[in-house]
Amino acid sequence: MAPGAAKGAGGAQRKQAHSTNKTEARGLKRKRDKEDLQKLKKAIDELDPKSPDLKTFTDLPLCEPTAAGLRASHFEVLTDVQRAAIPLALKGNDVLGAAKTGSGKTLAFLVPVLEKLYHEQWTELDGLGALIISPTRELAVQIFEVLRKIGRKHTFSAGLVIGGKNLKEEAERLGRMNILVCTPGRMLQHLDQTAGFDVDNLQILVLDEADRIMDMGFQSAVDALVEHLPKSRQTLLFSATQSKRVSDLARLSLKDPEYVSAHEEAVAATPTNLQQHYIITPLPEKLDTLWGFIRSNLKSKMIVFLSSGKQVRFVFESFKRMQPGIPLLHLHGRQKQIARMEITSRFSKATYACLFATDVVARGVDFPAVDWVIQADCPEDADTYIHRVGRTARYESKGRAVLFLNPSEEEGFLKRLEHKKVPIQKVHVKEAKKKSITAELQSHCFQSPDLKYLAQKSFVSYTRSIHLQKDKEVFKFDQLDLDGYAKSLGLPGAPQIRYQKGEDVKRLKNASREVISSGSESEGEDGIKKPKKPEVRTKYDKMAERQNQDVLSSHYRKLIDGNDAAEGASDDDEEDFLAVKRVLDDDALETAAGAATSDAAAAAKVVKIGNNEVIIDSHRREKMLKSKKKMLKFADKPTKIIFNDDGTARELYELQDLDDFENEGPAAELRKKFVEAAGAKVAEIDIEDKQAAKDRRREKRDRQKARERGEMEAEMADADGAGGLGPQLGGGDYSDEDPLALLRSLPMPGQDSGRSDDGDSDSGAQPSKKRAKKWFEDDSDAEEQARKKRKKEKGYKRVIEMDQEPDNLQDLEALAAGLLED
């Protein structure tokens, strides 16, 4: 056999041996995994859920990926609810878990989810194996983050399905997910609309904050969602306040569920390290109390709960203008998902901050190191109160909570808290800390129509929420001081609320309007009619009656002056503020229109501004003439110009639309007009250019003649100073000169002047000898050299002056000739 063939055969044998070794290694690994899984299942079967020895996660029979993820996330000690729920869930039982808020319910269902899929050897090809449903987006994001931490060693794929994101992008990834964390509405949307989304292999269903999910807001969504899920599954329900109603259990198809409660025997449903207080504050003083509380706790991290998103917006915007000295944030359900996640992240990282929020963050959301929970509006029930105060005092940390109650709400709500075993103490606000901000709010609302609009919406939403509350023993709508509340918001009067019938509408109007509508006389005790004292009218009353203030004025007047025709409107139509005043037939309508037209024409004035005519038909428009800024909109539209590199301005060239071009006329005529106009313009420019060139040539000739005259005068001066006649008459001092020098310098008869070639005179009788010529010099060169020598001895320098840079051939030739002369 050839050496090459032997070498190839040896390589093939080594590859085959290596492949065999890898196959054997994989087989051994699968065998070990199978043995470990069997041991794990055996340990779970032998596990006693009520064993007192279960104190840490290492005491539980967990797989190595889950245990490693818990260690990496620093979870070691089991909480009460985890110690009670995880062993039952590992055995495959359905669990109903109830525990104090902040006691670790999230890990109580995430650990069983990971273990369930690990025992089933779940892969990506098996589809969806676990579904975790949360009532709010913030809580769903938090659950997903904890799942990523403890499940980092597993190979499962997990996804987050909540509202506010692209439905199509979510649908593309949905089929590859093993674990999904979602909100009910979004998940139901995918089950109904996403083709190919299969949930038939679902192994485990988890509902966090189950009592909230199964209330009236989510009941229909949960019912429809459960219909898509298989019956053979494990179900886990967790909440701070659990429900045992049979209807709830039947709807979720629970099979012999195990009820787990970590606080059923406790004295209180809230953490023991939570200090709880309440303050009795009338409705008109609520914002004053809240402002004083925030100003007194600037070095704290607090959450302020309000009953509606419109109240959250108004309080945030108004307090932001007044700058309390602490960072302010706001969170409600109307915000975009990206904004909600950003605000949640900022508040979590902040050391000192105040978050105004609705109940979207009242359940399950874990904000670190919250010092205070303020409930500015009374919660709808005791369970909501428990969830709200649970945002502080999380897992053995300390916290404080304060509740604002109206005098009419005190007795009824304290009974509800006592029934839930919630310890709470009454406190009073210090007089030194009280400060009224009503005047400041009125000023801001007067200056900003947008803030006034938010105040109106806040008033309507709060009164609506009180009106719709079921517990009438606590929420007594008739005992609310709505006029005082509207004034505390900075409003000149209480807006109309459509769901209040009959005489209550008139009672809600401000006092000044009642005086106007009731007449100008009053009857005294003796039966004699006496004129009423004039009511003091403030600038806010006048502001509300202005007709043309801005776009929000008509809306405000409808809120104030709405009539009984709008009382029959639907309670759900909060956004509709239109009200029918009266109905005119055709004849009456024509008569009213003619009268209005004639009156307007009689009082109108026409003012010409630029090329526009403005009709002045009111005092406000006449006053507007004095403002240049307001009259700019009626002036001619300015033309935009641009400047070239030379600084010359010209109009901007813009392309014209085809329709506008065709409307101007035929293209041939337009071309002819353009050529004629352009030709005339070019002719004018040509005449100007010719005249400018002529002026430049004339100036150049004048400068050249001036230079020539200057050079001639300089040469004559040089010749007079260097001539053989000696000193000139009338100049110099002759005391040292030889008197006969002048006579000796004169030429003798028959002789030349005695001048040498270089211009020096002879001092003797002998004629001077001429300088010998070199072989390369001629007469002209000798003369040129002599001239240059004289200039050099006298320090003469030739200067060429240039008024401007040469721009043609003639200028360049003149410059070159001047340079060559030297």
Automatic annotation (TrEMBL):
Organism: Cercophora scortea
Domains (record comment): The Q motif is unique to and characteristic of the DEAD box family of RNA helicases and controls ATP binding and hydrolysis.
Compositional bias ranges of the Basic and acidic residues kind: 21-35, 526-535, 688-712
UniProt similarity note: Belongs to the DEAD box helicase family.
GO biological process, one term: rRNA processing
One function term, GO molecular function aspect: hydrolase activity
SUPFAM superfamilies: P-loop containing nucleoside triphosphate hydrolases
Chain positions covered by the region annotation Disordered: 1-35, 510-535, 685-805
PROSITE patterns attached to this UniProt entry: DEAD_ATP_HELICASE, HELICASE_ATP_BIND_1, HELICASE_CTER
One Pfam family matching this protein: DEAD
Protein name from the UniProt record: ATP-dependent RNA helicase
